[in-house]
Design a protein that fits this description.
The structure is a single chain. This protein has 430 residues and is an alpha/beta fold. It is built from 16 helices and 17 strands. The protein has 3 domains: 126 residues, Rossmann fold (3-Layer(aba) Sandwich); 163 residues, Dihydrodipicolinate Reductase, domain 2 (2-Layer Sandwich), CATH 3.30.360; 84 residues, Alpha-Beta Plaits (2-Layer Sandwich), CATH 3.30.70. Helix 1 packs across helix 3, helix 1 crosses helix 13 and helix 8 crosses helix 9. The structure holds L-homoserine. The site of L-homoserine has 7 residues, from helix 8.
């Protein structure tokens, strides 16, 4: 039975899970998957984390270099996250002839090109299933299972923290601040939740999925992004009354020679499959020209599911499958062209509008006049409260309209004397 020695850098939540499964089952994987995995060295600067993970002292390396320089180690698992020193560790490991497994989506989104190039030059591979969708094997599906297809759309919930917050707001009428506080208490959201709530994490994941799915290089800075931090509870409640649920979606669509890539809060009809994905779960719908629609669902974050994905990658590399795929698939080379991203102002969707108006005759006519002049057609209007002469919300659904037109119309509407405060607009899909 082949035995492959593995080095692990980082013993945080996921690293500790990976250490545990390799120590408990590494050898036992042999009969099942055809290769034994031996955790040979672990690097972690925080002694408390080493104690907590119960890693035997003899396996603890002084630093990551000791692992990278060990000629017996064939695979390095990087689980420290962030850009530095993760980037340097990965590049150095590849140059020293190690294969690399990582969950580092921020690094791959920002420096994927350099890392892929370095790996291909060194004749090694980098695998990163755990970087998107936690335990859901969505990268493997895009790369292998759906390889025969021209991918048309990637459409999903790829951030568990924000999905938990939105679920709490929708189902328990919690304000954004309360739902975020609860997510932090439960350990889903970081003390600094910016990466999740700003949509940046979803953008990194969309960039990774789009590169594999559409086979183009992606400048993730150019992906349109809106987070959930400006969402008001009333928006969700009014949308719910109309039969819509709010989700933070990562959307990728092929549009001729361009790609439409965007991350933003999106309303979905209640019976849409993604509307039923709640809590920290993720779900990604992918459609291809031959397979049609597919859907991948599971726990998108957390120790156990993410560990499952990391170790599956290690097995794939140890068996020799991943290096072949990595060396052959065009999306991992430096050849793919840089994607041309569609200007967000040209993208067409339906819209939910929430406008605070003075309740008096002629107000609706003024607002619909502005919308009409901007080529926006109203599908439905609801005024959930009636208080003559007082401030009330006017809630509208539009037919499909161009983003640039809607923004211009809302700027004009917000200048009307009968409108108070900044109006709210949320895109609608499905
Ligand atoms: N912070 C991420 C999420 C998990 O909430 O989905 C890691 O990708």
């Amino acid at each position: 039975m082949d035995q492959v020695k593995v080095g692990l850098v980082g013993l945080g939540t996921i690293g500790a899970g990976v250490a545990q499964i390799l120590l408990e089952r590494g050898r036992a994987f042999g009969p099942k998957v055809g290769v034994e995995l031996l955790l040979a060295r672990v690097a972690e600067l925080d002694r408390a984390k080493i104690r907590k993970a119960k890693v035997p002292a003899k396996l603890v390396a002084k630093n990551a270099d000791e692992i990278i320089d060990d000629p017996d180690i064939q695979i390095v698992i990087e689980l420290i996250g962030g850009i530095h020193p993760a980037r340097e560790i990965i590049l150095s490991a590849l140059k020293k002839g190690k294969h690399v497994v990582t969950a580092n989506k921020a690094l791959l989104a920002a420096h994927g090109d350099t890392i892929f190039k370095t790996a291909r030059k060194a004749g090694r591979c980098i695998s990163f299933e755990a970087s998107v969708g936690g335990g859901i094997p969505v990268i493997g599906a895009l790369r292998d299972g759906l390889a025969a297809n021209g991918i048309q759309t990637i459409f999903g919930i790829v951030n568990g923290t924000t999905n938990y917050i939105l679920t709490q707001m929708t189902q328990a009428d919690k304000t954004y601040a309360d739902a975020l506080g609860e997510a932090q208490e439960k350990g889903y959201a970081e003390a600094d939740p910016t990466a999740d709530v700003s949509g940046a994490d979803s953008t990194h994941k969309l960039a990774i999925l789009a590169r594999i799915g559409f086979g183009m290089r992606i400048d993730y800075h150019k992906i349109y992004r809106e987070g959930i931090d400006k969402i008001h509870l009333e928006d969700l409640q009014d949308a719910l009354k109309l039969g819509y649920v709010l989700k933070l979606l990562a959307i990728g669509k092929r549009q001729g020679s361009q790609l439409e890539l965007r991350v933003h809060p999106t309303l979905l009809p209640m019976d849409h499959p993604l509307a039923m994905v709640n809590g920290v779960y993720n779900a990604i719908g992918i459609s291809g020209d031959w397979v049609g629609s597919t859907m991948f669902y599971g726990r998108g974050a957390g120790r156990e599911p993410t560990t499952s994905a990391v170790v599956a990658d290690v097995i794939d590399v140890a068996l020799g499958r991943a290096p072949i795929t990595f060396s052959k698939r065009g999306c991992f080379s430096s050849k793919p062209k840089m994607a041309r991203l569609m200007d967000i102002t040209k993208i067409k969707t339906r819209y939910f509008l929430r406008i605070n108006v003075i309740d008096r005759p002629g107000v609706l006519a003024k607002i619909s006049g502005v919308l009409g002049r901007n080529e926006i057609s109203i599908a439905s209007v609801v005024q959930p409260e009636w208080r003559h002469g007082k401030l009330v919300p006017l809630v509208m659904m539009t037919h499909t309209a161009m983003s640039g037109h809607v923004r211009r119309a809302m700027r004009q509407i917000d200048c009307l004397d009968v409108v108070k405060g900044k109006s709210r607009l949320i895109r609608v899909e499905g």
